[in-house]
């Protein structure tokens, strides 16, 4: 299941085509104490993790000045980092970005996943085609393409990367496996760590500890884990190094419950589904 906003990445398209590197609210009630968590994640040498339990802002719908008290900001790779905050760079690493498909067809057609001769698309995001992680050779080639974007994030001044759609195997018509994607994630982690960046596991709680132990991912970004009863899948592996996002179109009860259960341990954010900028009337951003 995909539970994130789709962003058109002009900079990513530029990287894909030519390798260019462009220039780079209110609170809920106080939570109750949560149960003890596992030991803190140990990052790779030279890598800094996001502060635990800090106010987080998810700015994928467009960058804007963070609210007072926000310590961690996530923006698309096409945006600049927010000054004075811990910054996470969003990458669509397991599927094509909207608007990118012609470039992939031209430059890397062999890296697009096919089933019965047809491109495999995400049913919730039909303009996104799954990338083919099914062999070591293809994973290596993909790591070079996505690795250029990771390098861009580092050069732009981000502190971490969040490669989205780790769970793409679940919508691949059995053309991909969890093993394929974990192995590809490990290649991305190696590149992120070499660039001095932390790297997040995005969703895919069904992997258990494999994201951390096999792919060397450093922390988790989990969407709607309260709604789907998955939050323990992440805290069991990453302890307090979890960022949780709940969405307003599910109602606000899940956010309230999340704050009560984990609000003093992990970062919990309530956001509008389209993660619009703060000057949009639909904007919602709340913290425990």
Hey, roughly how much beta strand do the residues contain? 15-25%
Shape designation: globular
Indicate the percent of residues in helices.
25-40%
Can you tell me the CATH topology?
Answer: TIM Barrel
DSSP E strands, number: 13
Main beta sheet strand tally, sense and closure: 9 strands, mixed
The helix/strand series, from N terminus to C terminus, equals HEEEHEEEEHEHEHEHEHEE
CATH architecture: Alpha-Beta Barrel
Structural class: alpha/beta
Mean pLDDT: 89
- First CA to last CA: what distance? 26 Å
The CATH class label is: Alpha Beta
Structure description:
There is one protein chain. Helix 5 links the parallel strand 9 (198-202) and strand 10. The radius of gyration is 18 Å and the shape is globular. It has one domain (15-28, 44-287): Aldolase class I (TIM Barrel), CATH 3.20.20.70. Mean pLDDT is 89; it is low at 1-15 and 17-40. Helix 3 packs parallel to helix 4. By secondary structure, the protein is an alpha/beta fold. It contains 7 helices and 13 strands. It has a 9-stranded mixed beta sheet. Strands 4-5 form a two-stranded antiparallel sheet. Residues 1-24 form the signal peptide. Residues 26-46 have a biased composition (Low complexity). It comes from Gryllotalpicola kribbensis. This is Endo alpha-1,4 polygalactosaminidase. Residues 56-275 form the Glycoside-hydrolase family GH114 TIM-barrel domain.
Write a compact overview of the structure shown:
By secondary structure, the chain is an alpha/beta fold.
């Amino acid at each position: 299941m995909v539970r994130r906003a789709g962003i058109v990445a002009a900079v990513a398209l530029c990287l894909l085509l030519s390798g260019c590197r462009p220039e780079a609210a209110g609170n809920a009630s106080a939570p109750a104490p949560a149960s003890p968590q596992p030991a803190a994640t140990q990052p790779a040498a030279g890598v800094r993790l996001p502060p635990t339990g800090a106010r987080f802002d998810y700015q994928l719908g467009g960058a804007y000045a963070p609210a007072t008290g926000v310590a961690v900001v996530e923006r698309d790779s096409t945006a600049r980092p927010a000054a004075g905050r811990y910054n996470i760079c969003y990458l669509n690493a397991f599927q094509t970005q909207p608007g990118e498909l012609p470039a992939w067809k031209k430059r890397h057609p062999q890296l697009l996943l096919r089933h019965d001769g047809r491109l495999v698309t995400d049913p919730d995001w039909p303009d996104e085609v799954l990338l083919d992680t099914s062999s070591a050779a293809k994973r290596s080639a993909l790591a070079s393409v996505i690795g250029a974007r990771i390098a861009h994030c580092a050069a732009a001044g981000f502190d971490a990367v969040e490669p989205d759609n780790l769970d793409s195997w679940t919508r691949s018509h059995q053309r991909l496996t969890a093993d394929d994607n974990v192995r590809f994630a490990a290649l991305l982690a190696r590149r992120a760590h070499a660039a001095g960046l932390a790297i997040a596991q995005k969703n895919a709680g069904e992997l258990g500890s494999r994201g951390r132990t096999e792919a060397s991912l450093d922390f988790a970004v989990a969407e709607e884990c309260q709604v789907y009863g998955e939050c323990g899948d992440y805290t069991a592996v990453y302890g307090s190094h979890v960022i949780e996002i709940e969405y307003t179109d599910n109602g606000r009860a899940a956010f309230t419950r999340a704050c009560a259960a984990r609000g003093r341990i992990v970062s919990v954010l309530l956001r509008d589904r389209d993660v619009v900028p703060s000057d949009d009337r639909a904007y919602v951003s709340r913290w425990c």
